[in-house]
From TrEMBL:
Glycoprotein keyword on record: no
EC id: 5.1.1.17
Name used for this protein in its record: Isopenicillin N epimerase
An annotated Gene Ontology molecular function: isopenicillin-N epimerase activity
Domain Aminotransferase class V: 51-382
EC top class, as a word: isomerase
Spans traversing the lipid bilayer: none
Domain of life where this protein originates: Bacteria
Gene: cefD
Keywords: Isomerase, Pyridoxal phosphate
Length: 392
């Protein structure tokens, strides 16, 4: 069955890049618009936290908490994962000589935030180099363990990596880091809606994620889960009223994140519609959608691997619904060819997907994302185009 009509995506383009900003179903944007209309009908009644906003946010918080296995008192809202990562890093006590650890699969914006706070306090950022192609979980554990040091204060690690689409084994990574007394911030930008989550049992110190990616919520909204022992310490990136005006119905932690200045809450308020919609697509609900997207990603990866004559770069069990393949770099001619491929795919072949430099100079990666509105025929058409590129 084609789910494509539920999204307003341009039918002229094969959109294989859900991973970057997500795409929002029509029913969800309609719900968002209805909230915006309601807001403009009676702005103070709608937006003043103590009138009706706080209880509306708490309703959404309960729904999101149920989805990600969290206690609502640990779950704050942020605009996006970048903001969540910044809030944690900027709240972290760091001394000169301390270290923050990141990985080479990390998201550039978040690594930049780590660099910024480290430099500010004379700390340093250490990078764990995890290979790609990747043989399995052990390669991740070994790379992380090798770089954990006595001065490591925090490990920032992705749940699902942006450049390589790998689902990292975050539970054992967290256990390892905790054995060394190191806190863990999981950048789960792609987590909710792509992989099952239980934040209560995961035992991270912090987990931040986007609602606008794999939950198909309106742009923009995200979550920041914080373990209870860090509630006192963490502050949002923007300080507002709650810093000196406690609210009787919520902790300072929630009150500060719930109001960082006037904002448009409609993306958050429409999120339950997105969760309901996605959960309605398959008999097994959200889990059914995740499984279907994962199966589609494996099928797509197989088509691309066969076309490019490469081995699958990541074990199936370490994939979600984001797939990266390295492009063959046999000759300098193919290097030039790959550098302009993304633009050619868009302009000549009506595909939207990222092609970008790999970890080793001169190599290139191609990434596709599979959401309910995609189908394998789109990937087969892409394979045909790539075959022609290889032959030219
Ligand atoms: C792993 C990862 N972290 C963080 C982000 C940043 O997301 P946002 O720009 O919504 O904050 C992304 C976006 O693609 C991502 O893939």
């Amino acid at each position: 069955m084609s789910y494509r009509t539920h999204w307003q995506l341009d039918p002229q383009i094969d959109f294989l890049n859900h991973g970057s900003f997500g795409a929002t179903p029509r029913v969800v944007t309609a719900a968002q618009r209805a909230f915006q209309d309601e807001l403009e009908w009676d702005p103070i009644e709608f937006l003043a936290p103590e009138r009706s906003l706080n209880s509306k946010l708490d309703h959404v918080r309960q729904i999101v908490s149920d989805l990600v296995g969290a206690d609502p008192s640990d779950l704050a809202f942020v605009r996006n994962a970048t903001e969540g990562v910044n809030a944690v890093l900027r709240s972290l006590p760091l001394d000169a000589g301390d270290e923050i650890m990141v990985t080479n699969h990390g998201y550039n914006a978040c690594t930049n935030a780590a660099d910024y706070v480290a430099k500010r306090s004379g700390a340093t950022v250490r990078v764990a180099h995890i290979p790609f192609p990747l043989s399995g979980v052990d390669a991740v554990m070994d790379a992380v363990e090798r770089e954990l040091h006595g001065r490591t204060r925090l490990l920032l690690i992705d749940h699902v990596t942006s450049p390589t689409g790998v689902v990292f084994p975050i539970a054992p990574v967290i256990e390892l880091a905790h054995q060394r007394g190191v806190r863990v911030l999981v950048d789960g930008a792609h987590g909710p809606g792509m992989v099952p989550l239980n934040l209560n049992t995961l035992d991270a110190d912090y987990y931040t994620a986007n609602h606008h990616k794999w939950l198909c919520g309106p742009k923009v909204s995200g979550l920041l889960w914080v373990a209870p022992q860090w509630h006192e310490e963490i502050r949002p990136t923007v300080i507002s009223h709650a810093a000196n005006r406690p609210q009787s119905d919520r902790s300072r932690f929630l009150a500060e994140f719930d109001w960082t200045g006037t904002f448009d809450p409609s993306p958050l308020l429409a999120l339950p519609t997105a969760i309901d919609f996605l959960s309605s697509l398959f008999p097994a609900g959200m889990r059914g959608l995740m499984n279907a997207n994962h199966a589609a990603a494996i099928a797509a990866r197989n088509v691309l691997a066969e076309t490019l004559e490469i081995d699958p770069p990541v074990p199936d069990a370490m994939l979600g619904s984001l797939v990266t393949v390295p492009l063959p770099a046999a000759s300098s001619r193919s290097r030039d060819q790959w550098a302009s491929l993304q633009q050619r795919l868009r302009e000549h072949h009506r595909f939207e997907l990222p092609v970008f430099p790999g970890f080793v100079a001169g190599t290139w990666f191609l990434r596709i994302s599979l959401q309910a509105y995609n189908d394998i025929q789109q990937v087969e058409r892409l394979a045909e185009v790539l075959r022609a590129e290889l032959a030219s």
